[in-house]
Amino acid sequence: MRVFLLSHILLPLFASCAAQAQTSFEYKGIYSPTNAEDEVRARYATNHVDYDWDLWGHNLKKVVESNPDNAVYATVADTLCKAQFCFSSPQLFSIVENYILDQYGEGTSTYSARLLIMPQDNKLACTCPDCRKLGNSEHNATPAVTQMLCRLAKRFPRHQFFTSSYHSTSIPPETKLPDNVGVFISAIDLPLRVDFSQTKGYRKFVGTVEAWKKVCNKLYVWDYERNYEDYLTPFPCLRAMQSRIKLYRDLGIKGIFLNGSGDEYSAFDDMQTVVLAQMLSNPDIDVDAKVREYFENAYPTTAQLISDYYLALENRTVSTNHVLPLYATMEELVESYLNADEFIEWRKQLDKASKGTAKPERTRLNYLLTALSYTQLQLMQLQGSTDEDEMDDMIEILRGHSELKGMEYYSESYGKIDDYIKKTSNKTAK
Ligand SMILES: [Zn+2]
Question: Ligand 1 centroid to 76 CA: how many Å?
Answer without folding.
Answer: 9
